[in-house]
Specification:
CATH architecture: Alpha-Beta Complex
Number of strands: 7
Mean pLDDT: 96
CATH superfamily: Peptide deformylase
CATH topology: Peptide Deformylase
Helix content: 10-25%
Distance between the termini: 29 Å
Number of helices: 3
Number of domains: 1
Structural class: alpha+beta
Strand content: 25-35%
């Protein structure tokens, strides 16, 4: 089932997410619904806060990047209770977008390597070093678990220039091809 995505300005997008326990009620359905939502929205990653859940859960499928980034091959994962324990490597700029901030893309600087711990959908523990596009997308989605959006990483001048667009997003003045919940949208009265 496709879930609505919370738009920029929704307070849940600014909350730090909480770890979940093995046996979390409905977890398999939540994961399936998040994948359905991500694919229907043409995303490569989706964090639970983006669909209104304050839990540390991310789904990823980097298949669209395979042609340009060989490390993206076969990178389809569920990350539960993910924690990045180290960020290293060279800084690189990449033009990022976000399903919660539609119609906005900005060049964002991130480090090229991360060390991460997480549980998969079967609650098997993993500890991995990721690099390149895989590290970048995971950092972007991980930020959602920490209440951070990619637009927080732009320069102060860019923030001023984006202010109107971000306000329009929160009010629902944009219409992406997927369902969203807009925090500042005025209700229509009958």
């Amino acid at each position: 089932m496709k879930l609505p995505i919370l738009a920029y300005g929704h307070p849940l997008l600014r909350k730090k997410s909480v770890d979940i326990e093995k046996g979390h009620e409905g977890l398999s359905k939540i994961i399936a619904d998040m994948y359905d939502t991500m694919y229907a929205s043409n995303g490569v990653g989706l964090a639970a806060p983006q669909v209104g859940l304050n839990i540390r859960l991310i789904v990823l499928d980097h298949t669209p990047y395979v042609e340009d980034y060989k490390e993206a091959a076969d990178f389809k994962k569920v990350l539960i209770n993910a924690h990045i324990t180290e960020v290293s490597g060279d800084e690189w700029i990449f033009n990022e977008g976000c399903l919660s901030v539609p119609e906005v893309r900005e060049d964002i600087i991130r480090k090229s390597n991360i060390h991460i711990t997480y549980y998969d959908e079967n609650f098997n523990f993993h500890e991995e070093d990721l690099f390149g596009i895989n590290a970048r997308v995971v950092q972007h989605e991980y930020d959602h678990l920490e209440g951070i959006l990619f637009v927080d990483k732009v320069s102060p001048l860019k923030k001023v220039l984006l202010k109107r667009k971000l306000t329009d997003i929160s009010k629902g003045y944009i219409k992406p091809a997927y369902k969203m919940i807009y925090p500042a949208q005025k209700k229509k009265h009958l």
